[in-house]
Design brief:
Four Helix Bundle (Hemerythrin (Met), subunit A), 72% helix, elongated, signal
């Protein structure tokens, strides 16, 4: 389910960016409009890296996915803001802005899943270390009565 959702989002994001990127040279003639080209090229690069990782045998770790998706969502928010602010001046179609907003919301959902996986993994590691160090007892002992580990008597019995 996650894999197909991610594939759909990545494909959609790539198409939305490619549609405007192909038409951008004609529209970016106005001064200041070239910034959207740079934003869309960065977005295409991020999407390409996600696609490459998805196709390779070596999958992204949750940390890598969280980081890349965070960059993608940040790029999307910046792109949407720029496109909205300069819609008339740069002749950006409203359908592009709506598509970017929808894509960015999907990417934010995937980012949340990836970053939650990182948090869960860190919590599981913390618990494992805690158990390995002292069995969960804050005083480091193996039992709650003595507060210390069980000792074997030494000497003659």
């Amino acid at each position: 389910m996650r894999r197909s959702l991610a594939s759909g989002v990545i494909a959609t994001m790539g198409l939305a960016a490619a549609a405007l990127l192909d038409a951008a040279p004609a529209r970016a003639q106005a001064s200041g409009c070239e910034k959207i080209q740079a934003l869309l090229q960065e977005r295409q690069s991020l999407v390409a890296s996600l696609n490459a990782a998805q196709k390779s045998k070596r999958k992204l770790t949750p940390q890598q996915a969280c980081s890349t998706m965070t960059k993608l969502v940040s790029n999307g928010a910046t792109t949407v803001k720029f496109a909205t602010d300069n819609q008339d001046w740069c002749q950006i179609p409203p359908s592009f802005i709506e598509g970017m907003k929808a894509d960015n919301q999907k990417a934010a959902g995937i980012r949340t899943q990836a970053c939650n996986a990182v948090k869960q993994q860190a919590e599981m590691m913390r618990r494992a270390q805690q158990q390995a160090q002292g069995g969960g007892n804050p005083f480091g002992g193996g039992d709650a009565i003595t507060g210390g580990g069980m000792r074997i008597p030494q000497g003659a019995l």
